Structure prediction request, 252 residues.
Amino acid sequence: MRGKGASEGVGMQRESAIGLSQNQIKLLAAAAMVLDHVGMELFPQWTILRIIGRLAFPVFSYCIWEGSRRTRHPWQYLLRLFGMGLLCVAGYYVYTRTFYGNILITFSLSLCALYAFRYWRTCWTQGEMTARLSGIGVMLGCVGGIWLICHWVTIDYGFLGVLLPLFAELAECIWEKYPGINCKQGRAGLFGFSVGLLALSLQIDGIQIFSLLTIPLLMAYNGTRGEKKLKQFFYWFYPVHLLLIGLVSMWI
Prediction:
């Protein structure tokens, strides 16, 4: 297993690399999401807008994994995301009288899966049978609960979409345990994420295959957040842009 110094070295290498910051790739994803929803609500005949929109979900999903590793307040991170998701659920219900688990609910469940997996890993390394059984129970209970939720109600991108960041986490864990694996530093998580994205694309079928074009974009990610703090912008971007598009749709 790599030592702490090696892990910190990887982070420093990634953060000093030339490329796109997290803010930059998220802004590109936000623009793609706007085009996607404009195409869905206003111009359904323009398939190109929906194709461009396939780039949004993978970028934000990958950033959820990155954010879960970097945040110092993981549960606050989850609660903020879930709270904003519930706000959007309520707004959508008022507008359509139907329940829909939007993308923020998807990402909230993704965080739950990531936290449960890390809890299981922590328990497993303790070596005690009680701790290991506790970790397994939490992990199976969380994944099973997510599976039931995805089958009872409509969740954006479904069960596999929820677990997409977990593919990156699993690949990163394997690389840490077997450092002899021929994988460029800092790319193990992206490789696992790409495998999950391919599986999701094949499951959904249709234009979702274009989401694989996100991989080169994520390869350009340099591991930095960016100079400006845009956290609040990205929290409010999703509900506000949906509200504006909905108002335009009603006006037309």
Q: What stands out?
A: The mean pLDDT is 87.
